[in-house]
Design brief:
The protein is built from 1 helix and 4 strands, in the order E-E-H-E-E. A hairpin with a 6-residue loop joins strand 3 and strand 4. Helices cover 11% and strands 37% of the residues. The protein is globular and about 50 Å long. The protein has 97 residues and is mainly beta.
Length: 97
Amino acid sequence: MIVFTDPGFVSCPSALQGPVFREPAAEEAARLRRALGETLPVVVAFEADGGGSEPVSCLIAAQGLDILPGLVPRRPRARAQADPGLRDWPGPPMPTD
């Protein structure tokens, strides 16, 4: 999982899946400089499935990012059928208090 620290600019849907990362285009970098008045250390551009018929272009600029190891749970697409019994941990469910 990627966690952006101190984001200065975010342009993407609140829910997305299947991001394909790429270098930011020159127009995107210029857009960030105009919006922020500076260039932040972390700039990420990607295309992703935002739930529509076409991929969505996304752009995020932040002071930093943390990469957290581990599995990221995914929800099945609205029209897809989930595989029964698929779990993202190796053992029985964790007990709760």
